[in-house]
Write a structure and sequence with these properties.
- It is a single chain.
- The chain is α+β, with helices and mostly antiparallel strands and 390 residues long.
- The protein contains 12 helices and 17 strands.
- It has a 5-stranded antiparallel sheet. A 4-stranded antiparallel sheet has the order 1-2-6-3, covered by helices on one side. A two-stranded antiparallel sheet has the order 4-5.
- Helix 1 crosses helix 6.
- It is globular, with a radius of gyration of 22 Å.
- It binds flavin mononucleotide.
């Protein structure tokens, strides 16, 4: 089974991604891996941290001569900022520890600061926020590259674009070619497929930036060319829509997940929501007049693009801080402020791609099995033939 976990704190030495269950023989495109890490750092409205960190992945295990070998993969991403935090976050209990420590006792509303400190009985939210921080998503994106490279072998590609920032919203659907183009363009400020809407989105970021405020939005992840039949209707925890929802909801600041036209569907009539079925005898393929289901019916992929939207709340750390209470003195105080992003919707989308890719790769390995890429490909091609003969 394809599993992954991460380790590492925001200002610690490094982030680690550990992945198990990847079949042998998957070629690793190192340039692609680094590019994906770079994509996560882009976007109009990011804070100063991105200027410090130039993320690079170092493979420690599981890849030899450019290919996976079926062994667990370990990846490391160094935190350059560690140089400024070595004393404050020293692993050993150094003598001047109390003075070096950058203690944080004014918990920020919207962060894990207070609930985490209470839960772990720590009177320093630093220990909580260091791990809760979305710096961790660099490790997720690293793990996601392995999933993406495996999916590439099954002719599937996963990308994302931004559909809303604050009140500025893309008024139409985006074609796959447009999403590809905007993802290719690393200079795109907010990875929106429509220039006019993107200008409005930039305006939203500028307004909150000036006011010391923050803004959220919506990203859309699209998995293109997904084979019919991943996931299952048979048990609640096998349903792929549910698994995708958990994966995307687990991204820091995501507070809602939508599959296809899910949210609008709740207030529409049945005839406006379902995707009518047709058949193309020449291609021996079932067809759909629309894809409002977002490629999933009954928890199973139906051959259409899988479309998952993540709804991000505005970033919790505000330059014009909110009120809070000091965890030690219990006195009212302004919430702590540290260098912070103002808008992270494009970056959230890159993390969303990673999480969707990981779930799809897991489901593909479940369906096609195999310890090696050769075995998976053989099973995959046999299944495609079976679908043609259906
Ligand atoms: C890519 C990305 C970057 C983020 N950067 C920041 C940030 O600079 N400052 C901040 O306060 N929150 C940031 N967040 C959100 C927090 O990590 C998140 O709100 C916090 O950990 C609490 O978790 P929750 O919002 O999921 O409940 C970021 C989220 C993402 C996805």
């Amino acid at each position: 089974m394809f599993r992954f976990v991460t380790a590492g704190e925001s200002h610690g030495q490094a982030l680690i991604a550990w992945i198990s269950g990847v079949p042998a023989g998957v070629p690793i495109d190192f340039e692609f891996v680094q590019r994906e890490l770079h994509r996560r750092q882009l976007g109009y409205g990011r804070g100063g941290r991105q200027k410090i960190e130039k993320d690079r992945v170092e493979f420690l295990a599981g890849v030899r001569h450019g290919q996976t070998i079926g062994a667990p993969i370990a990846m490391r991403i160094d935190n350059r900022d560690w140089a400024n935090w070595e004393k404050a976050l020293s692993v050993e209990n150094i003598p001047d520890f109390e003075s070096a420590q950058r203690r944080l006792t004014a918990p920020r509303p919207g962060h894990a600061d207070l609930a985490g400190s209470m839960k772990f009985n720590l009177h320093d939210a630093r220990y909580i926020l260091e791990r809760a921080s979305a710096r961790e998503t660099a490790a997720r994106v690293a793990a996601g590259t392995i999933a993406k490279l495996l999916l590439r072998q099954l002719e599937c590609e996963v990308l994302s674009h931004v559909v809303a920032v604050g009140k500025a919203r893309l008024p139409r659907t985006a074609a796959w070619g447009e999403i590809q183009a905007v993802c290719e363009n690393l200079d795109s400020p907010l990875r929106c497929v429509d220039a006019e809407t993107e200008a409005l989105m930039k305006g939203e970021v500028d307004v909150v930036h000036r006011a010391g405020n923050t803004v959220g939005g919506i990203f859309e992840v699209v998995a293109h060319n997904v084979v019919t039949g991943l996931g299952s209707h048979a048990q609640w925890d096998e349903k792929l829509d549910a698994r995708l929802a958990q994966a995307v909801m687990s991204i820091q600041a995501v507070k809602g997940v939508e599959i296809g036209a899910g949210i609008a569907a709740a207030t529409s009539y049945g005839s406006e929501v379902m995707d009518e079925i047709g058949y193309n005898p020449a291609a021996k393929q079932f067809t759909r007049a629309s894809n409002r289901a977002g490629g999933l019916e009954g928890g199973i992929t139906n051959g259409e693009d899988v479309i998952v939207r993540g709804y991000l709340k505005p970033i919790s750390t505000l330059r014009a801080p909110l009120g809070t209470v000091d965890m030690v003195t219990k006195q009212p105080i302004s919430a702590a402020y540290e260098r912070s992003d103002v808008c992270v919707v494009p970056a959230g989308g890159v993390v969303g791609e990673a999480m969707v890719s990981i779930v799809l790769a897991q489901a593909a390995i479940e369906k096609f099995g195999g310890d090696s890429l050769v075995e998976i490909r053989r099973n995959f091609e046999g299944y495609l033939q079976q679908l043609k003969e259906f």
